[in-house]
Write a structure and sequence with these properties.
Length: about 150
């Protein structure tokens, strides 16, 4: 009898390479398949792959287990202006270690509860959580009101 289910990742830029589910977490290795459209510095459309590194990013939990995306992040070298640039990830804010949707999920937990409660629920450091308000300007007033209760 089969007891597993398959769910789409729901992050269209990624292809799933491998997944590991343990009692405590879910680790999903992903990479993008599409090359960049243009060099962000000069707009030129010719480049070559410079290198690749791994980046760990938190995503929405599955069955109350934290989910870590291990992204094989590519860097490109523009053959026109010689600049090196990271690939663009629509689902992950630049220089952040959480997907947009995970940051919204954490933010939506905040009203009416303490930061330390949310910190324990999502297994994130206490100081990380207040920074999640920035991309969600619609909710920023709510966040400020609820922050008084923290
Ligand atoms: Zn360029």
């Amino acid at each position: 009898m089969k007891t597993d289910i398959r769910l789409p990742l729901g992050l269209p830029e990624f292809t799933v390479l491998k997944q590991e589910i343990t009692e405590n977490k879910v680790v999903i290795q992903v990479e993008t398949m599409d090359p960049p459209e243009r060099c962000p510095y000069c707009g030129f459309q010719e480049w070559k792959k410079h290198d690749q590194r791994l980046r760990s990013v938190r995503d929405l939990p599955i069955h109350n287990r934290p989910v870590y995306l291990i992204i094989q992040l590519k860097r490109w070298h523009c053959t026109n202006c010689q600049e090196i640039f990271d690939e663009h990830l629509p689902s992950v804010p630049k220089s952040k270690h959480q997907t947009h949707r995970f940051r919204k999920y954490v933010f939506d937990m905040c009203p009416g509860v303490t930061i330390s409660y949310v910190s324990r629920q999502v297994h994130l450091p206490y100081k990380t959580i207040p920074g999640f308000r920035q991309p969600f300007k619609v909710h920023s007033c709510l966040f400020m009101i609820s922050a008084r209760h923290w």
